[in-house]
Queue: 4 jobs
Job 1
Amino acid sequence: MKKLREIDGTTPLAGERLSLDRRDVALWLAVRYADVTHHLSVSRNYTTPPRVLAYVVVLTLDASREIRHKLRADALRAFEALGYTLAPTGGDVYELWIEVTSGMTEERRLACVERVEAALAGRVIPNPLNLRDYASSATSKDDF
């Protein structure tokens, strides 16, 4: 497997990393807004680099406008902390798929949430392509 530093946004691993980041942000939002039923939708333009997102939308059931705006603002803040930018071009978009979370242990789910918290706090972020980093409190040589 390539080291994370070698992922320049053009390799297949860049797309995998993006789906893992989406999963982590979705789990982080689920913890922050446990009482709100919601779904995180993230879209990209076909022609932009992987670190550029077209749309970030949080769909909710029976949530107030204020809560919907807070959810979206927090999702954007989390993606920006993970190194993404939002720049819709008006061109065709596709929605990103999310990594499956149903088989994850609570320890791994917590590690995903902690990864987003670390990014927001400006700390070293574990490599999402290597789940062994998730169970370790020490930083890896592949951390970025």
Job 2
Amino acid sequence: MLGLNLGLNLGSAALRAGAGVPWITPSTIVAEAGSGIGGAGQWRPSNAGTQTMTIDSGFTRRPGVPTLKIDASVLSPTGSYFTTFRKALSQAIALTGAQEAWVWMTPTTAGGHTIFSRVGSDAPADPPTASPANRLEQQFSNDKFQSGYWTNLYWHPNGEVYSNAQPDGVPPTPTGTPDLNNIREIEFAWNIGSATPAAERVMWLDLVAFNGRSRPAVIFGFDGFGDTSHESVVLPLCQSLGLRGYIAGDGNAAAANAAKLATFRAAGWDIISQGMDHTNYLTNPGDLSPDFDEAKGILEALSLTGALDIFAYPFNSRSLATDATLLGKGVKWARTTGGNRFPITSLGKPNPLLIGAVDMGGKSAAQIKAWIDDAKLGGYTLVLYDHTPNEAVLIEVMNYIATNRNAGLLENWVPSQHARMAA
């Protein structure tokens, strides 16, 4: 596994000219792995007989800072599995913004993980012996987090978590009457599908933090080099509003559409490769390396060189094997779907080779605007894509992005800009 230290490199968190708000509002760490299990001030597992919880100094996100390892692979190698683990906070703290939990979820070849992030306002025993009666819980299923890397389970008490499978969002669920101004306990519930192999029943936790955020941003783009609606509808509208995005497509379709792509590039848009022949690289990972090189050569020959280190997966077909290929090619940003929010905080960032995106195709303007509102609320980067847009929906959504941008409430970036911010 790749123990990447995905640290932050944004330079100063100085005010952005004209925006009047910091790029980064610092996060407050409320819980870390600590130095032991099951004692006062320490994490306590609920199912001590079916899991092993240890302090792991050999697998870390932050150099020299141990993590909490939860391993169900030996004592519960088969069947469905559910456990909780929790920690009392040293003092009450108000959750007025987002919660972030930095975890490593092992990729699954079958079955899968669902993790529930919880905060509670009861005064617990120390260590806590039961779930808080008054709590707020956010669910993260497999399509809502990155796996195989350190990822940020990031949610706002008043927001929702969106995905292509659940475009209307999954809001936090209260039990009892949680007091968000008096959070006293952190808890996680972890559910493992019955088909999950034993070796994949392991996760790590680095830290939990409250109330950090970054300046929200929206990145949007359209797939298909040969789609004529991009020139006739998308570009005139976006130019009238001062917005820019990206066009993604297969290298073998670039030459026939060179004039269109040159027009978009001249307007400041990124032109992004999807490899060759719209190949599913999840099932054909060995094709990615030669296809990437061939598509890159075609774009270079057309002088479309502004985003050669950016990639968009056809069929969202990433895997750990394709991640390694793109990393070896020097790719800085790659679009897929899982974990479709990108929070940059004072404590780090997710892996920019797994940029999750939400599909605008077939969605209403109200749905897409709700996604944008959540990015504004939570303080993260939202990435969108479409193919042939619905013109009425497009007009309403692009005007909404421009209005919020003009009001200083969010940024509009192209992927190559975001890649530099997320480096």
Job 3
Amino acid sequence: MNEQQMKILHQKIHAGVKGAIATSIEQHRQRGQSISIWLEAKLSPILYLTLPAVNGRGFLVHSPILTE
């Protein structure tokens, strides 16, 4: 696999992972379920009320909690 093919594959994987995370966060937000993330070497809960919304294209709306 050459460098260009690796770059394309990486972009597809990255887009797929971001989409899956956005879908999961949106489902938790709609169900009123909180999530936990690993942040600064400890498990940090995020209440469902503070979870960012997902726009119509499946991308997280900017949030100070979750950054790219």
Job 4
Amino acid sequence: MLSTSLQIVRQLADTIGNMDMPPGPAVAAKQQITAADDELLPEISKRQADMSDFTARATAEIISLHADSAAPEEAANALHRLGCGFEEQRALIAPLTSRVGQVRDTVTNNVSGMTQQQAGLQAQLAALAGQRKQMSAQLDDLRKRSTVTTVLGSFFPVVKAADEIASAVQYGTTTEGAISEADRRLAQLGSQSQELNAATAACATLTGALTQLTAALQNLANAAVLVGGDLTDDAARAATATPTTLRLYLVSLGTAMAVLGDSIR
């Protein structure tokens, strides 16, 4: 479970790291995720490998104790030492679990900020589209009036007609420039909105994957606590156990260690 969760988070982090982000919370989320991908995820991989190695060594030692028919005192000392070792492993996992949770919470807050930013962008796009439509209607009206002025120019004084046409041309040029600027801004904001949508979706998916990774780490820590507790308890019992009972303890522990080894991978 841990390996799968870690792989999913890595893939999502790499995807987000290669995305173009609009200014604002999306950039902050990308920076946080990139930092986790560079530092935190490799630490988790190393901790997983270290615990896997420790579990394998502990399993081999327990099998050896059983195979060699170790004396109760020898077995008790070994089991106590191994139990303490698993407690140390648990203690090393706990900070990583907390850090993954912090990254998840930070990205979740960034996703909330992106959602708010998207609402603002949509409001700007709607307002700008309305202005553009109004300017386009004004320009069409102006062109119609200019045509009428030109056609009827012979019925008006030449200077007055020329002035009206010049004024219309000047106003039309200004309006066309404003429409062109509105189109440019609409394209810019539309592109930003698309980038923001993609970033929001990717980061939201990542928060779910980080939740699963947190659970996988917590499960691993819990397993270390259970196995460590079993080892410590059996160490106390092993000191006074008969050879037959001691062998049963060791067989049971060997089975538990094998299960733990599978859960770590």
